[in-house]
Amino acid sequence: MPPKLRRQQLTAVYWANLMGQNKSHPTLRVLEQCWEYGKRECHSFEWVIGDLVKELGIKELSITPIVVLPAVPLWIWPQPSVDLRILEHREKEGQSELEEIQIKDMVALFMMARTLALRLHFLSHLDDQILPSLKAFAGKRLSSPCLRTSTVCFPTCSSLSPRSVCTTERGPMFVVAGSVRPYQELLPSGSGLSLLHHLTSDEDHTFMKRLTSCTSSQQVLRLLRSYPLLSGAAAASILHRLADLEHDSARGLWKPQILLSDAGLNKLCQTLENDSARLQDEVLVRALLGCTRLYLDPQSRLVLKLMFESQKRLNLERLSVEVLCGLSRALFALEGPNSCMIKQAMSQLQNKDTAQWNTAELVAVYSMLATGLGEDGCYLELLNEMNAQALQLVQQMGPGAISEILGALFKLRHTEALPLVIALCKQAVHHVQNFADPELIVVLSALMHYGHSDHFLVEALERHVPNIAFTAHAETVTKVMQFFRRWRILSPPVFNTVAESFVYRAEEYSTWQVSQQIAALGVLGYLPPDAGRLFRKVESVLHARFSQFQPRALLDLLYACTLLQRYPLNFVSKVFSPYFMQQLQGEESSGIDHRVLAQLTQLYMTVKLECPFYDGPRLSPKFQVKSFLASGQSLETPVEPHFYNAVKSALVDLLGAQSYFASRVLTPYCYTLDIEIKLDEEGYVLPASHTDEVHKRIALCIDGSKRFAANAEKLLGKEAIKQRHLRILGYEVVQKLHRQNEDNLPQSSPSLNISCPLCENSHRLIGLKEICRRNQRMFKTWRKIFLGSLSFFFNKHSADFARCNIR
User: Fold this and answer.
1) For residue 660, with 0-12 CB atoms within 10 Å meaning exposed, 13-18 middle and 19 or more buried, which class applies?
2) Is residue 688 within a helix (H) or strand (E), and if so which, with residue range?
3) Which of 93, 583, 647, 672 is the most exposed, fewest CB within 10 Å of its CB?
4) 282 pLDDT band (50/70/90 cuts)?
């Protein structure tokens, strides 16, 4: 062979060897394209080998891996222990003595063999005349007809009927040599050897305790292999525990091929199939529901056998409420809402008297409807009857029942259940300390959806959350902060503890959870005592995981920091970059909404006003808004109409005419002023229409209750930053505060006569203004008198303004 061809052959073989390696092989990086490819042609190795494989036409071929690794790790298989007692007995007693061994014992020994090699060794020494149907050829595989699994395990859409699942049959564990009967048919008496036995209460309790303690599917499978005899309830519980551990909301199951190819699980499923007729109603339905949670093929023999047995018992119309609910959930997952069996089960359920149902039955029906059967107003009459019965039993409900019912109502978006939600909220107050983390999350989510809160629930949370902030699930802490943010509840005990725990647990939180917790502090405008450590931790999280933040979560976090007068300029500059704006536009499918643009605008304004040394990127004008006040979620709280009318009427009487002040003025700085008063250089009040010779502008902020925390007289973060910016821009800010403790104040309309602290006699403020106009030498004191009197006047009569009815 010429040396040139020999070199090409070696090069091609070397390329094929590299293609068979793992993608992490370092030499594969040499074959990747680089920036030189677009500039000039060179004779480097990757260039030459790339041209060669194209010329030979082997570039598109799939190369078999050099090292073929099995899907199931070898070290998880048990070490086989070969039992040679039958062989020794045969050699010792002779061929004739083998017939005296009971067939039942031999089959039991055969089923106890856990590996294929051991079973073949056992079968090879059996007499051909005794077990002719069990003879198999060495190297062949015996079929396991019980299970056909789905390799693509995505939950199907609830609107599809019948259920459409993309399935691929995996290779059977064994290949049959002839027709092999199920092992139950080998018994002489005709009664099958079942692995499903009634365990004693102690054994069952011990098994369930060990099963619950398992934290991985491999632990469950090892536990299954250690229990050769199981009850039906325990077998069904194994299916559900595997589904709990392997379920992934985005992909169905984590590793369905490895899980469902386990020999012990296959044997368990085959046992359930053979013994389905002897299972109790509850166990039968629970096993069928477990199959749906593991996304077994609806056409597999196990599922078909369980459904056939369920249909027989459904026709007898003797199933309890809880069994009917479990059966409906399983059928909904398998066949969709239009299944005939579902309609039959729901018809029997509706014929039962809801007034006789207990709490467990109510919870089962609520959970069943929440899976999708109750969507689009289906079974609304049944739901209303259940709500009435639940109201009667609400005092008997524990934390689990409260969470399940509230979660079901939340999923169903049932608008007529507000009385039940209020009653459940009151009952939840007594169980706050008993809620598990997932249950508390569901309760708070449902209450936020229905727009309901309770003073006693808040107090219970303030007592409970500081005790669990360091140990509770990250989502639980985040949901509590969202709840307090939603209702504008300023709770220093909760906020201080959560802020302290954040310093130690920040790595456990997702980027979205970090954003939500800091955003709650920003909305309430609350700085914890140890704010320095908190924001140093926030900065370290941003440095470490900046690329992991979603655009909206990052914007909410940075905006909350500016509300609290903390300015992370290193990261703010990245937000104004064109790349971030493209990411933000890509995240918003319908375009960037007004609130996001307003946040960007206010963030940019804050940096320019409060950090004059900032010299980073600027926010493009096309992403800036003209006003922060908009319908829906706004960065400004609209003034309360009745409160505004009261102040407006008083100002007309104070200044003599409405032309001396302007209402709801949009400034060039995007803020809307409730009332604006203009003063000239000498301190005189100018008409609102004047634009020249304006020396001072007074911004009167009519701060109603919605601009404060719900339980404290503290401005919200967005209102505090507004007044801070107005002062920087040169406005004289005068607050008209809202007073909450008005119970002991008179109900009569307010009097406009006030006692001015700067004058000896009582004057009407309009008279005070006329006195100042007559005496030109008092123009310097007029501004102080006017502002002081105005503030004193509104603060003194704040409660009366809130009560008065201006016609």
Assistant:
1) middle
2) none
3) 93
4) very high
The rounded distance, in Å, linking the Cα atoms of 555 and 584 is: 10
List CB contacts of 84: < 8 A, sequence separation 6 or more. Answer: none
Cα–Cα distance between 76 and 663 in angstroms, integer? 76
The length of the chain in residues reads 807
Cα–Cα distance, 31 to 19 (Å, whole number): 10
Cα 779 from Cα 756, distance rounded (Å): 17
Top-confidence range, 60-69, 421-430, 613-622, 631-640: 421-430
Q: How far is CA 300 from CA 175, 224, 238, 274, 294, in A?
A: 17, 22, 19, 13, 13
DSSP character at residue 734: E
Q: Is 712 exposed, middle or buried (0-12, 13-18, 19+ CB in 10 A)?
A: middle
pTM of the complete model: 0.68
Q: How far apart are CA 738 and CA 90, in angstroms?
A: 99
Q: Mean pLDDT in the chain?
A: 77
Structure tokens at 270: 């085959």
Q: Are 150 and 134 in contact (CB under 8 A)?
A: no
**Token code pair at residue 113:** 């063999």
Cβ atoms 293, 239 nearer than 8 A = yes
Q: Is 229 helix (H, G, I), strand (E, B) or coil?
A: coil
DSSP 3-state assignment of 32?
Answer: coil
Here the contacts of 616-619 (C-beta below 8 Å, separation 24 or greater) are 616/569, 616/572, 616/573, 616/576, 617/573, 617/576, 617/577, 618/576, 619/576
Q: What b-and-e string marks burial along 157-188, b requiring 16 or more CB atoms within 10 Å of the CB?
A: eeeebebebebeebeebbeebeebeebeebee
In angstroms, rounded to a whole number, what is the distance separating the alpha carbons of residues 574 and 589?
22
Nearest CA-CA partner of 477 in 450, 437, 442: 437
Tell me the Ramachandran region of residue 295: left when phi exceeds 0, alpha when psi lies from -120 to 50, beta otherwise: left
For residues 373 and 332, is the Cβ–Cβ distance under 8 A?
yes
Candidate from 84-88, 452-456, 577-581 with smallest mean pLDDT: 84-88
Cα angle 724-518-478, degrees, rounded to a multiple of 5:
145
pLDDT confidence of residue 337: 86
Per residue in 226-250, is it b (16+ CB within 10 Å) or e — as a string? Answer: ebeebbbbbbbbbbbbbbebbbeee
Let me know the angle formed at the C-alpha of 253 by 252 and 257, rounded to the nearest 5 degrees.
Answer: 130
Phi, psi of 148 (to 5 degrees): -125, 125
In the 8-state DSSP scheme, what is residue 40?
A: -
Residues contacting 403, CB < 8 A, separation 6+: 435, 438, 439, 440, 442, 443
Of the chain, the end-to-end C-alpha distance in Å amounts to 109
Would you give the DSSP letter of residue 670? S
- 144 in helix, strand or coil? coil
Q: Check pLDDT > 90 for residue 33.
A: no
Distance CA 213, CA 207 (A): 10
Calculate the CA dihedral of residues 266, 269, 273, 277 and round it to 10 degrees. 150
Give whole-number Cα distances, 199 to 44, 223, 274, 285, in Å: 72, 16, 19, 20
Q: Distance between CA 347 and CA 352 in Å, rounded?
A: 9
pLDDT tens figures, 152-207? 333 333 333 333 333 333 333 332 222 222 323 222 333 333 444 555 667 778 88
Do 716 and 524 touch, CB atoms closer than 8 A?
A: yes
pLDDT in tens, 123-147: 554 444 344 433 333 333 333 334 3
Question: Which one, of 456, 458, 508, 453, lies nearest residue 478 by Cα?
Answer: 508
User: Which residues does 212 contact at the CB level (< 8 Å), separation at least 6?
Assistant: 241
- Identify any residues that bridge with 673 across adjacent strands, giving them in sequence order: 665
